[in-house]
Amino acid sequence: MIPSQCPKSNFLSKYAVEEQCPLATPAKRNMKIAIVMALCAILIGCEFTVPLVEEPTTKITPALLGLWQHSKEDGKVEKLLILPLGESEYLVSWPAGVEDALFARACLTETGDIPLAQLKWFGTAEGTLSDDERVYQIATYAVDDQQLTIRMLNADLVGRDASSSEALKAAIIRNTAAADLFRESMVFRKVQH
Prior knowledge:
- The protein has about 190 residues and is an alpha+beta fold.
- The protein has four helices and eight strands.
- An eight-stranded antiparallel β-barrel has the order 1-2-3-4-5-6-7-8.
């Protein structure tokens, strides 16, 4: 039986599922989780071991909330879900609605007059937690009506090994004039219901 045909019934015993589905054994399931986490780390590229800000201080921006979608060059659509998580934090799911979606806590801040979002990736839709210390990403963003533009901070330029929040801020400010401070834009459109 191929993995996509594995039964999902909760009525089968653990052993019956393991016999019918090769991904159901703990070792194979752990290997799949490790591969998914490695791919996510490559695709998302968690860059930093230290946060830009320790505690969120900026209130949430209602215009950021909701379901957003981005069309890739191959025509596939990826979704980004941003929900409020208190008065000054967000819960982010990327790509939203898929079985290996990643989840992050996010907050807004400014460094050198640049509006920034800090993301701390903490787990997947499969219930796994990252054991990597590089869980932070920084992005600049602009939201205009029904469009959200995100550009990830170029860690190759500012360096990934900041030892403190202050050192990370200083590296960003030091490179503010650099044209490649941020990576290529990702443009999302708000999903209308």
